[in-house]
C-alpha cells in the first residue's frame, strides 16, 4: 500500500479533555497496525496523559489545565500527517507465549465447546494453540487482552449466564476472540484451560505482559508441567 | 503519627488526583468523585494539589488523632463533629493529639473530603495512592481495601494552624439538579425525539450507582440500538444501553466499552452528580465545549489565585 492510500483518521472531541480518533469501521490487521503506529507516535506529545487504543479507535486524553486543546489538536494532526504505511513494519511489539493446561479439570466449558463446534476436545486444543493471535484491545480489567481471531471452527457465543467467579489464569473463548482472565472475576466466556503464569505484576512498571499490538501464542502443557510452574487447581 | 480509625464508615477511601497513563493496560484512573471539593481541601492547607485525602461516602466514620495537625474539610456536610462540637465543611480546623473527629450521616451532599497538612503518608502503586476496590489497587494496603477499623492513617505532625475558608461564591450548590454535559460525536445516532427526551427528562439516581458509574432512571430513550465496536471511554461518558436508561461513567469506569454514548458530563458536572444519593433527581444541561473549557479554567484559576 502506498502513502496516498493511507486514509487519515476522523477526529472528534469527546469532552473538554479527550478526543477520539477513528481509523476504520471494520476490524482488521491493517487498521490495528495503523493505530499501533499512531499510538506510538503520539507518546511524544507533551500534555497527553492517556492513550487508549482499541479495535478501530484511539482515545486521546489530555491535560486541559496546563495545555491548550487547539495546540494539542494541531500537534496530533501533524504527527498523523507524518506517518506513512511504510512505518508500520517498525512496530516494537513482542511475541508472548502463554503455557496452557487445557482440559475439563480447569476448563469446565471445553466439552461443551467441542460439542458445539462438532469436533473432539483434542481438536479444540490443537486449533486454539496453533493460531497466532493479535492483541486488539486491553480493558474490562487490568491486563485483560482481547485476542483475535480464533479459527472459524472454534466460534462459539458467550455463555447465556455469566459465571460469578472465573479463576485467575483461565483461558477462554467467545465469538472470534480469546483471552486470559488476569485476576479472578465474573465472566461470560467459555473456559477451556488455565495458565500457571501471572498476567499482571503490580510491582513492575510494564504491569501487564500483553500490550495492544502484541502477538500471542498458546502452548499446551501437561498437568504435571502446569503444577510444576505453580499452577493452581482451585475449583469454580 | 496517625489518625486511628475507630469506626471505618460505610465507604471511606484514600484518594489523590488519580492514576494516569495506565488506561492502555486496562487500569482505570480512580481519583476523587468530586474533584473541585478535593482541590479546595488541599488548597486550604496549602498542600500539593495531589496530596492524598480521605473520600468519605455517606459517613459513619470516627477518627482519633495521635498528634497535632491542621485539617481541611470540603464537599458534603455529613454532620461532622470535633470532640462532639459540630464542624461544617469548606474550612480548616486545628487538631490536637487525642481529638476525636466523627462523621454521622449526610445533611447535604454524599461525599466529604478530609485533607491533612502535607497529606497522608502512603506508598503509591503505579504512581498513585487512589483506591480502586474493583481492581484491588491502591489505598493503605496497596490492595484496594476501603478503610478498616484499627487502620492507622499516618501524617506528619504540625503545630501551626491557619484558619481559612473557601470563598462563598466558590462553594457549589449540591441541591442543584442541573448537570452540565456536552453532546458528542455519537449523539447524531440518536433521533431528535430521543435527544429531546434526554434533555427533557428528570432522571432519578438509581440505587445501583457507585464510583464506577451512576445509573439513572427516567423515560427510556433510543432503546434497541446496536452496540458499537468497543472503544476507549472518556470520563463522564453517558452510555445509553438497550434499556434506554443512561449510565454516567465516572472515576472508576472501565477503560473500554461498546455502548453508544449521548455525550460526556463535564468534570464539574460529574462532581455534582457524585454528591447525589439514590432517589435524588437530576437533569442534563447542554453545554458547548467552549463553555465547559471557560468554566473549568475559571474554577482552576480561582483555586490557584486564592492560594
Task: Please give a structural write-up.
The complex is a heterodimer of chains A (236) and B (307). With 236 residues, chain A is an alpha+beta fold. Chain A folds into two domains: 10-87, Gyrase A, domain 2, CATH 3.30.1360; 95-229, Cyclophilin-like (Cyclophilin, Beta Barrel). Chain A is built from five helices and 13 strands. Chain A has helices at residues 29-42, 69-81, 110-117, 121-129, 223-228; strands spanning 10-15, 18-22, 48-53, 57-62, 95-102, 133-138, 145-148, 163-166, 170-174, 177-180, 185-187, 190-194, 215-220. In chain A, strands 5-12-9-10-7-6-13 form a seven-stranded mixed barrel. Chain A starts with 9 loop residues before the first strand and ends in an 8-residue tail after the last helix. The mean pLDDT of chain A is 92. Chain B has helices at residues 35-44, 192-200, 267-274, 289-306; strands at residues 2-8, 11-15, 53-57, 61-65, 69-77, 81-82, 85-86, 91-95, 100-103, 108-116, 152-154, 178-183, 203-205, 213-217, 231-232, 237-239, 247-249, 256-257, 261-265, 281-286. In chain B, the strands form four sheets. Chain B has a seven-stranded mixed β-barrel with strand order 12-19-16-17-14-13-20. In chain B, helix 1 (35-44) runs parallel beside helix 4 (289-306). The A-B interface holds A 12-18, 20, 25, 27, 39, 49-59, 61, 64-65, 69, 137-144, 146, 183, 202, 207-208, 211-212 and B 20-27, 29, 125-126, 135-137, 142, 182, 184-185, 229-237, 254-257, 263-264, 266-267, 289, 292-293, 296-297, 300.
Amino acid at each position: 500500500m502506498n502513502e496516498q492510500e493511507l486514509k487519515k483518521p476522523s477526529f472528534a472531541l469527546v469532552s473538554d479533555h479527550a478526543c477520539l480518533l477513528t481509523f476504520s469501521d471494520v476490524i482488521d490487521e491493517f487498521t490495528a497496525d495503523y493505530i499501533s503506529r499512531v499510538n506510538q507516535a503520539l507518546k511524544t506529545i507533551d500534555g497527553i496523559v492517556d492513550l487508549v487504543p482499541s479495535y478501530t479507535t484511539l482515545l486521546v486524553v489530555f491535560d486541559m489545565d496546563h495545555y491548550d486543546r487547539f495546540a494539542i489538536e494541531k500537534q496530533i494532526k501533524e504527527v498523523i500527517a507524518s506517518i506513512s504505511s511504510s512505518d508500520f513494519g517498525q512496530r516494537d511489539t513482542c511475541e508472548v507465549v502463554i503455557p496452557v493446561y487445557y482440559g475439563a479439570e480447569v476448563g469446565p466449558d471445553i466439552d461443551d465447546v467441542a460439542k458445539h463446534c462438532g469436533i473432539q476436545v483434542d481438536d479444540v486444543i490443537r486449533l486454539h494453540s496453533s493460531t497466532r493471535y493479535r492483541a486488539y484491545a486491553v480493558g474490562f480489567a487490568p491486563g485483560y487482552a482481547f485476542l483475535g481471531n480464533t479459527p472459524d471452527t472454534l466460534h462459539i457465543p458467550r455463555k447465556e449466564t455469566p459465571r460469578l467467579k472465573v479463576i485467575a489464569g483461565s483461558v477462554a473463548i467467545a465469538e472470534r476472540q480469546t483471552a486470559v482472565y488476569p485476576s479472578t472475576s465474573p465472566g461470560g466466556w467459555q473456559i477451556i484451560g488455565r495458565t500457571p503464569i501471572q498476567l499482571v505484576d503490580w510491582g513492575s512498571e510494564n504491569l501487564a505482559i500483553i500490550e495492544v499490538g502484541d502477538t500471542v501464542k498458546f502452548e499446551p502443557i501437561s498437568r504435571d508441567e502446569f503444577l510444576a510452574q505453580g499452577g493452581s487447581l482451585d475449583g469454580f | 503519627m496517625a489518625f486511628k480509625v475507630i469506626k471505618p464508615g460505610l465507604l471511606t477511601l484514600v484518594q489523590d488526583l488519580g492514576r494516569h497513563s495506565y488506561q492502555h493496560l486496562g487500569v482505570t484512573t480512580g481519583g476523587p468523585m468530586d474533584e473541585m471539593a478535593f482541590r479546595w481541601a488541599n488548597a486550604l492547607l496549602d498542600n500539593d494539589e495531589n496530596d492524598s485525602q480521605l473520600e468519605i461516602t455517606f459517613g459513619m466514620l470516627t477518627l482519633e488523632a495521635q498528634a497535632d495537625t491542621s485539617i481541611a474539610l470540603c464537599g458534603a456536610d455529613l454532620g461532622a463533629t470535633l470532640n462532639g462540637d459540630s464542624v461544617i465543611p469548606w474550612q480548616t480546623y486545628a487538631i490536637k493529639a487525642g481529638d476525636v473527629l466523627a462523621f454521622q450521616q449526610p445533611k447535604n451532599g454524599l461525599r466529604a473530603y478530609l485533607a491533612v497538612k502535607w497529606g497522608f503518608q502512603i506508598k503509591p502503586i503505579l504512581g498513585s495512592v487512589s483506591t480502586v476496590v474493583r481492581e484491588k489497587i491502591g489505598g493503605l494496603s496497596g490492595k484496594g481495601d476501603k478503610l478498616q477499623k484499627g487502620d492507622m492513617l499516618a501524617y506528619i505532625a504540625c503545630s501551626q494552624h491557619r484558619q481559612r475558608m473557601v470563598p462563598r461564591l466558590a462553594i457549589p450548590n449540591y441541591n442543584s439538579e442541573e448537570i452540565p454535559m456536552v453532546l458528542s460525536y455519537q449523539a447524531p445516532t440518536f433521533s431528535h425525539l430521543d435527544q429531546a427526551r434526554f434533555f427533557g427528562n428528570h432522571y432519578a439516581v438509581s440505587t445501583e450507582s457507585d464510583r464506577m458509574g451512576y445509573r439513572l432512571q427516567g423515560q427510556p430513550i433510543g432503546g434497541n440500538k446496536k452496540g458499537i465496536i468497543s472503544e476507549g471511554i472518556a470520563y463522564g461518558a453517558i452510555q445509553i444501553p438497550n434499556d434506554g436508561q443512561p449510565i454516567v461513567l465516572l472515576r472508576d469506569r472501565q477503560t473500554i466499552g461498546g455502548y453508544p454514548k449521548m455525550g460526556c458530563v463535564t468534570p464539574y458536572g460529574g462532581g455534582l452528580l457524585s454528591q447525589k444519593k439514590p432517589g435524588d433527581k437530576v437533569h442534563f444541561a447542554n453545554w458547548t465545549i467552549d463553555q465547559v473549557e471557560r468554566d473549568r479554567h475559571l474554577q482552576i484559576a480561582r483555586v490557584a489565585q486564592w492560594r
